Amino acid sequence: MRQEFLQKTNRHVVIDDVFQPQIIDLLQDVVERDGKFVDNLKLSSAAKAGERTRAGMPRGSVDPEAFNSADEADRFIFQRKLDGARPSRDGTPAMKAEALVRRAMGSTSFLNWLSAISGISLERVGGINLKLHGPGNFLRKHSDTRQGRKLCMVHYLHRDWHPDYAGRFRLYMDDGRVELIDPLPNRMILFDVTQDNFHEIEALGEVPPGWVRVNYSVWYG
């Protein structure tokens, strides 16, 4: 895996079957029953306005009214993210599993494993977000390069996926090509964010009722 990561100009690697199946099942219960998910809506223009908006929201974040009234080209992130447990659900096996996964992702042994794959010395975990994409949701082209960030991990948790669903990870290569990575269940993507690895998530298409694209996004420094 390290050889594959290092030999590419856009340093990245795709790893399949990372989690045990029972963990995937429990995390599905977070999505379907126990977790509270909120809108994560961001505009490019709001992100350029400063670290926080006047309403005290994170950089670029806006409410649904502002998002829906903005120009289509200005809409940057259209998705939902986990905001804790639903009332009286914080002690369920699913929510405990979600907390366990977060601790594991920030553990010394996991950081050492990621460092061995990437050749990048990692010391801490940054943000960990569990995200949902429904029909029409997307993430526009961008780079995750920020001060202190070294590696990004994306891990898919939905139970199945079909090419007709779309929602693929698009990585813009240095030679002008676009590498399309299918969001297969239990697949992990690691990529170097010390360089401008521009990427996006294409809009999700028509999917079966109730199906959502689920993934963790994690940054390491």
Structure commentary:
This protein is an alpha+beta fold and 221 residues long. It has a domain at 2-29 and 95-220: q2cbj1_9rhob like domain (Jelly Rolls). It is 24% helix and 32% strand. The protein has helices at residues 2-7, 21-34, 44-47, 64-69, 93-105, 108-118, and strands spanning 12-16, 35-43, 75-85, 125-133, 138-142, 151-156, 169-172, 178-181, 187-192, 199-201, 213-220. Strands 1, 2, 3, 4, 5, 6, 7, 8, 9, 10 and 11 form an eleven-stranded antiparallel sheet that branches. The protein is globular. It starts with a helix and ends with a strand.
Q: Characteristics of this structure?
A:
globular, 32% strand, alpha+beta, 11 strands, Jelly Rolls, 6 helices, 221 residues
